[in-house]
Model the fold of this input.
Amino acid sequence: MVRTSDMHPDMAKNLLSLELPEIEPQPWIAPRPLSEATVAIVTTAGMHAHDDRPFNPGSVEYRLIPGEIDFADLRMSHLSVNFDRSGFQQDINTVFPLERLRELAEQGVIGGVSRYHYSFMGAQPQPTRLEKTGEEIGRLLAADGVTAAFLTPV
Amino acid sequence: MATTGVSLIREHAEGMKPPRSLFVPFPLGRPLGSPDQPDFQRDVLLSSLQLLETATETTLADYPHDAPTTGDDPWACAVALAPPEPANESEALRDQLVEEIRQLAPWHAESRKRRGRSTVGISGATLDQVEDLATLLADFATGEEPSDGEIDWNHPMPVRLKFASDDLRAFYHESATAQPGANYPTDADLNDWLFNQTLLGTVLRQIVGRMRESDDRRVAGLVIGMIPGGFARAR
Done:
């Protein structure tokens, strides 16, 4: 069990002292049944293809991760040192469950897997700075026929 | 676009209220639980995706299981590294660090063979240049002016130090987790090993000490990106 109460006190204090952005409630979207859903992964793990640009601290751009990417080409240039990287180093799915998503599609549990996935730099001092890029990703996903996004932090 | 997801810090999800989220009681950095546990990972993913069908209003659900671990035996690195007292001269410290890297290198080769990949490389160094990363760190740790060397760096100084350190830590982690019986050390196991039982850990602390003393705010600002919370002091 890992909750903030189990963490190193300094880390828990730091995490719980972060100012959270006020986010206006958005209209509720009733999604399609899972068996018809096309799903993309959107991660804030600071991942990117090896030959793409590494993230800089505070980067608000995204990195494109093609659905057919070879896991050997994935890297992580996240700035924060306060999270485990060894799970990612041993098995990319610990952070970016693309193979698990493909399996759910093969089993017919979900309708399909997006052609593209997107990665951001987490640990943003002002998360609202991601709003513009987030909207851009939303448009790109919708234009590509994606009906649901799986959002994962690190 | 309908969204669902996982949250690693429940308090943040409670505050920001994403439409659908599954709180998972896993260590930061492991949103799907544990490596090489496909059934467990799939269950976490599916539990989050199912919120797309079941939630009719803003929902923060709790995943009921802890991440799988290897058992009760404490993890230990199978390469018994005996870090010497770090030398004060850059060249001597570099040689000591390279010696440590060479002790781990056969296990890193096993890691690459088994996993077919390595996550080392965000600094710009290739796997053939891992020992050159030791030069950069040894130079900075002993107060020498670091030279550019042969690496096609992705970042300028001083940010380069952070990503060189991350690459070397990745090399150490991948080596240590390639050993038989060492499949699932926790984050704390690996940090405890690296920062208390290897020369690299000692050198990284030495570097952070120098960063703290620096008049350059860019250098001092990197301190938070070098050593995980709780490991800044030797045990």
About this structure: DSSP finds nine helices and three strands in chain B. The longest strand of chain B covers residues 2-7. Residues 90-115 of chain B form the longest helix (26 residues).
